[in-house]
Structures are given as structure tokens and as C-alpha cells.
Amino acid sequence: MRVFPWWERALLRLLPGHCPLCLGVPLRGMPWCAACFAALPRNRAACLGCAEPLPGGARGLHCSRCLSAPPLMSSSRAPLVFCDEIAWLVRRFKFEGDFRAGRLLVELALTVLIESDERDWGARFDVLLAVPSDAVRVRERGFDHADWLARRFARRVGMPLLRARRLRATGSQRGLGRRARQRNLTEVFSLAISPPPRVLLFDDVMTTGATFEALAQCCFDAGCLEVAALALARTPRSLPTRR
pTM higher than 0.85 for the full model? Predict the structure, then answer.
């Protein structure tokens, strides 16, 4: 799997432009420069259950929370950490409608997955299911950010895309803890059609995992055998940002 189709690679060679993160000279055939790509906050050491960054660089383990209360998802991945330039790109995309930032997020996440040899991690799943956005937020922003990202990601990896519905508005989840988010998301999703046996959930940022858990429960209620989660970035419990 290549991150860019042939015509985009050709344009990047002919019209390289500038790195969107520092305005420096980009790598040949890429939209970003070598220094910014090397400095990306990669989520290399993460919990297999909830994708939260683990202390000490440990890999292939579960965090204490997932060990005591295993999530519904069989596994979770988030190639990037929500901080620094990644947090800046997410905010540019979601709150300012900067589609170049959204496109860059997808391409960066795919590239990091490829370099970490996890490009085929989601291959066993039958469909990609985007977390449906709150209708109030969609009207405020003028677009469904999760669906926009999911459509581009699905095309890149060659997966069919399935959509769910939110049955009611839940408002902003920012500032809510895990249990408050879970209560807020009880029976909030529905599926118009029966999903295939194995579903990969998708969203831009994973914070506590409560939204993924609620949608996973909806999938299991509809007859799924396995549900996993993929976010472009994971919010750590505590990590300062530069932006």
C-alpha cells in the first residue's frame, strides 16, 4: 500500500511547495520536511487495549486499567499522540475547516503505520465504521469531520465504509471523565443495516475510549463477532504541548 496515488506523487515532485508545519523544504515526493516528520509525536509504546501511551517505552502490553476492566474492543491503535503539531493540525481541521490539515493527518497516520509495520493490522476486518458526529456539531462546523477523514482513510487502505447514526445529541465531551462520558453515550448509536462479523471503528482522536466502547456495544448488539478501534491520534493522560 502506498500512501499517495501516482498522480499525487507526481504533483509533489513537480510542485513540492513548502512543509505545512514549518514552511521549510519538503522531502522529495512528500508534503512535509524531514525534520518535522522525524519530530512527530509517535505513539510507539501504547496499550494494546486502549492505545494509551505507556510509560517507560514498554511495548506489547496492556495498561493497568485495561487489565482490571478489559475494553469491548479486541485491540486499539493510534499511530500518533495528540500533542504539539498533531493537536494543532486536528484543531485546524475540525474548528477552522482546513481540509489540507485533515488530508495531512490521514497521510501522516498512514505513513507512521507503514513504518511501524502495522500497515496490515486492520486487514482482517471487513469494514471501516466511522464514529458518527453530533448533528449539532456538524451544523456548527459545516461538515462531518469524522466521516470526511474516514472516507479518505478507507480509500487509501481499500476498505468498504459503513455508517452509523447518533440517536440524540450528546454535546461536547471535552472536560468529562471516562464514567461521565459513558453515561452520556448510553444507547446513543444505531446501525441501519446489520454489520459484517468484524468491524474496525474509526475516529480522529481517542481520549478515554468511551465513544468507541459505546459504538462497539452497538456493533455487538447487532451481531458482530469482533470490534477493534483505530484513531489517528491518542490523548495521553498528561503531556504538555508546545502549541
Answer: no
